[in-house]
Write a structure and sequence with these properties.
Largest sheet: 5 strands, mixed
Distance between the termini: 34 Å
Oligomer: single chain
Order of helices and strands: HHEEEHEEEEHHHHHHHHHH
Strand content: 5-15%
Shape: elongated
Helix content: 40-55%
Structural class: alpha/beta
């Protein structure tokens, strides 16, 4: 996810640079914040730019496969944008990580009565020259075509070093470090792109914060599941004790090791047990 977020950060903070690169236009650009109705748009990877009388829709993809499929999603976005803004719409999918999947070569959606086309850029096939020439696009250059990837990363590092603004230099360096992770080993990235400077950047801190939030959410979810599992165990042990008296400690441990779906099934099955031997037989059929 951090790769998509990094590209989104670049496109929304340097919209004119992206519009010039992809559309060869140099005019006032506005970043559009929209949900487009119906189901929410995947805001983590999609960017919409208003360019004169047209909209540039950018979709950054790390993986070729997605749900729903990317080609259908591009048609879906197109119809929503057209309905809301009724202007020319240019759609560009930018694949970040090299792959041989046939999905990255697909650039249209085809159905019985529908054919919708969009543009696809596979960064690993792109000439790095225009990317290296623009500070805002330097991070993308780390993934561009090269016979000597290390030399390319050195060029990116040299280009970042020429950026005058300290804050901008740190942010571009952090973005370059994140995207370079799709291609290079961590020790080489740390060697050529100074990690301590990257860590001071806004984008690095944003990625770190979002990662911590996702970790907290996963922790809360695990906590809820563990609490529910413990509640199921306590209820089942109480029901068994009421029916058969004290339950063998070994059987109790087996019950505590069951997953929630297994506990729910046991709660129903125990209604038909006539003795602890039935419980023993039942537990013998359950995978640990």
């Amino acid at each position: 996810m951090e790769y998509d977020n990094t590209c989104k950060y670049l496109a929304e903070n340097y919209p004119s640079d992206f519009a010039n690169w992809l559309l060869n236009v140099d005019s006032d650009i506005e970043v559009i914040k929209t949900e487009l109705g119906l189901e929410p748009i995947r805001a983590d990877s999609v960017t919409f730019l208003q360019v004169a009388n047209q909209i540039l829709h950018l979709e950054f993809q790390t993986l070729a496969q997605s749900t729903p499929p990317l080609d259908f999603r591009m048609l879906d976005y197109y119809t929503r944008l057209k309905r809301q803004y009724w202007c020319e719409i240019v759609q560009v999918v930018i694949f970040l990580q090299a792959t041989t999947s046939e999905l990255v070569f697909r650039q249209q959606y085809v159905d019985t009565n529908t054919r919708h086309q969009y543009r696809v850029i596979r960064l690993w096939e792109e000439d790095p020259t225009p990317l290296l020439a623009n500070p805002a696009l330097l991070p993308l250059a780390t993934l561009a075509r090269s016979d000597s990837p290390r030399a390319l990363l050195e060029q990116v590092a040299a280009g970042v070093a020429t950026i005058e603004g300290t804050a901008e230099r740190k942010n571009i360096l952090a973005c370059a470090g994140v995207l370079a992770g799709l291609r290079f080993k961590k020790d080489l990235i740390q060697q050529l792109l100074r990690e301590e400077i990257m860590q001071e950047s806004v984008i690095y801190q944003d990625i770190l914060q979002k990662g911590e939030m996702r970790g907290e959410q996963r922790g809360l979810q695990r906590g809820r599941e563990e609490g529910r599992q413990q509640g199921e165990v306590a209820l089942i042990l109480r029901l068994l004790t009421l029916r058969f008296g004290e339950i063998n400690p070994q059987l109790q441990e087996q019950i505590r090791g069951l997953a929630i779906p297994q506990l729910e099934e046991l709660a129903e099955a125990l209604l038909n047990f006539s003795s602890q031997s039935d419980l023993v037989s039942y537990l013998a059929t359950q995978e640990p």
